[in-house]
Amino acid sequence: MSVSRRADAVPPFIVMDVMREAAEKEARNESVIHLEVGQPSTPAPSGALEAAREALSRDRLGYVDALGIPKLRERIARHYRERYGVEVPAERVIVTTGSSNGFLLAFLGAFDAGARVAMAAPGYPPYRNILSALGLTPVDLITTEAERYQPTVARLEKAGALDGVIVASPSNPTGTMVTRTELAALYEHCRARGLTLISDEIYHGLTFGERATSAVEIGDDAIVVNSFSKYFSMTGWRIGWLVVPQALVRPIERLAQNLMISTPTISQYAALGAFDCTDELEGHVRRYRANRDLLMAGLPKAGLDRLTVATGAFYTYADISHLTNDSVDFCRRMLREAGVATTPGVDFDPQRGRGTLRISFAGSTAEMEEAVQRIANWVR
Ligand SMILES: Cc1ncc(COP(=O)(O)O)c(C=O)c1O
What we know:
Layout: H1 5-9, H2 14-27, E1 33-34, H3 46-58, H4 70-84, E2 93-96, H5 98-110, E3 116-121, H6 125-133, E4 137-142, H7 153-157, E5 164-168, H8 180-193, E6 196-200, E7 223-227, E8 240-243, H9 246-259, H10 265-274, H11 278-301, E9 315-319, H12 327-338, E10 340-341, E11 343-344, E12 356-360, H13 365-379
Parallel strand pairs: 1-10, 3-4, 3-5, 5-6, 6-7
Antiparallel strand pairs: 2-8, 7-8, 9-12, 11-12
Helix pairs in contact: 2-12, 3-10, 5-6, 5-9, 11-13
Pyridoxal-5'-phosphate binds next to helix 5.
């Protein structure tokens, strides 16, 4: 038997190792505050659960259209009209098995083997790893705090020949965003040079000031990736969507038919119900905002004073290079000795991640208070 070079080369997601160690500690009845998690601590909204129950009792739940059930594609198109004031034809909306599957379809649909695709470092690790596994070449843009760790046209101009760019706003791991003007500049740069712009909008809705701009507001040439995982609090339902240029609909349909057949039917019905739960979901956003404010006030006093100002998502990224040059060891010791789990930056930024860590504030406000206390005692 053989193991492919492409599979062998995919690095692990180190946050998973932290989560395993945290679980072992809890199994020994030791308390852990989870600042490593990348998901809401809440279940799917009540409307989604109700719709799922109803579908279970009424529907056979067989295969459905590879592009998604028409009602859900139409409902997502309506979401763009209501939230962003922009008309998106439902035929350009493709339902996917989480945005993770959306990336696979988007990359396969837009790029040939060997294509060079740029993204910000620090950034979400699977972009790089999915691209590599598909025989594409990830190109890290080494971004700075002054750039809010986002890609810029100036960086793209220095990155050599490119076929595509990924932008994530708000970003994981920094919680920072691009402005509408910056996104428009990236869009124009890509359009003029024939690059494919992929806009990861999974944290849209989770913003604490101005709402995030969608690439579809700027033009029809970008691929938008989104999901029910974060704002809609439905990670385990594995459901997301793409909005693609018209020319990509049929190629991605053919890929989806062969790779997936269809996205889980029950999750599609549940997602339809999730749109009617604005009050419940906005309550979560208010809690994330309160958690962010609490950490921004408390962590500097606890010794972690170099933090990104998260205007969205539920993360802040801490520069800890004045405390350690080994973030993996730092996180491990903080977990063992203080009972606070965080994610070392090496997952997000292979070059500089030994001096950074990601803190998630997706938990409860009481947990954030306790975490600040524990970190302060430990750093001291
Ligand atoms: C930036 C970003 N994009 C995509 C995903 C994948 O999410 P899902 O496959 O659940 O939609 C995540 C998950 O953490 C993420 O942080």
